[in-house]
Design brief:
single chain, 273 residues, mainly beta, Beta-galactosidase, Chain A, domain 5, eight-stranded antiparallel sheet, 22 strands, 5% helix, 47% strand, globular, binds 6-O-phosphono-beta-D-tagatofuranose, EC 5.1.3.15
């Protein structure tokens, strides 16, 4: 169906509801039955085919950050195709695909196939399988750049990120913190040795358990007040109710795929009380 002029797949199941935009292969909401939203979507999000949607789960691929243009790669601003949708005993499975085209090869000169699978039920699992369909190896980085809905960033604690990180607000300077991680200002960090499961303690009201696979880093981001005010697609105080925790293949540690090889990056989230 349509949502703000975009084609989306809307999932309505007794275990959960979700919306997935074909623009970007972007999950824009996920709500398990009898739960508040798990994924944050900006109230000022722009649904423009040339831009990434602010919030949800953007797919950053085949690079992470501003190492090239467009920022965070082209996957999050590409039109994905619906491959299949079906039900199993846990909920609904939706799969999208994105393959190289003249447009993508003009930006990144390689052949590829990406399959993005969403498993929507009491938990949400997003898996991105990238395959080299070319005749020579290529490297890639990326992230499932999940924005999580929280009650109050000042009352949020995060564990499982590990201690060592590169600080993107200080030119990637190496630093470390003790756990749990709390927030008093802008945070933009690449944690280099995260645990497989990261926990967001949301104001002691609920925990979001995030389990990642196929990653080699976890990024955490909250823009805080000044940056939110500077962004046209975020309300001034909206940083208070969001935090990004990202299953990441870091640009310093790209993954190499030989012809025919595949790799899967995934993230799974479930609510615990
Ligand atoms: O993942 C953190 C980050 O790379 C930040 O540096 C910040 O810029 C954020 O992503 C959002 O990037 P975007 O290109 O969506 O504005």
């Amino acid at each position: 169906c349509e949502f703000n002029g975009m084609k989306i797949v809307r999932v309505l199941h007794n275990e959960a509801e979700a919306g997935i935009s074909l623009h970007g292969g972007h999950l824009i909401w996920y709500r398990p039955a009898d739960e508040a939203d798990v994924i944050w979507l900006s109230e000022k999000a722009e649904f423009d085919p040339a831009k990434a949607i602010r919030g949800g789960i953007p797919v950053c691929w085949p690079w992470f950050g501003k190492t090239a243009t467009p920022s965070h790669g082209f996957a999050r601003i590409s039109e994905w195709s619906l491959l299949e949708h079906r039900e199993n005993e846990n909920g609904v499975i939706v799969a999208l695909s994105l393959e190289d085209s003249d447009d993508t090869r003009a930006i990144w000169p390689h052949k590829f196939r990406n399959i993005l699978t969403f498993e929507i039920g009491r938990s949400l699992k997003v898996s991105l399988t990238s395959t080299n369909t070319d005749d020579s190896p290529w490297n890639y980085a990326g992230a499932l750049h999940s924005y999580f809905q929280i009650q109050d960033i000042r009352c949020t604690q995060i564990t499982g990120m590990g201690t060592d990180f590169l600080d993107s607000t200080k030119g990637n300077e190496a630093d470390s913190t003790a756990e749990p991680l709390t927030f008093e200002g802008e945070v933009d960090r690449v944690y280099v040795r995260p645990q497989a499961t990261i926990t967001i303690d949301d104001n002691a009201a609920r925990q979001l358990l995030i389990t990642n696979h196929g990653h080699n880093a976890a990024v955490i981001w909250n823009p805080w007040q000044a940056l939110s005010e500077a962004m046209g697609d975020m309300a001034d105080n909206s940083y208070e109710t969001m935090v990004c925790v990202e299953s990441t293949i870091h640009s310093d540690q790209t993954i190499t795929l030989a012809p025919g090889e595949s790799h899967t990056l995934s993230t799974e989230v479930r609510v615990s009380r």
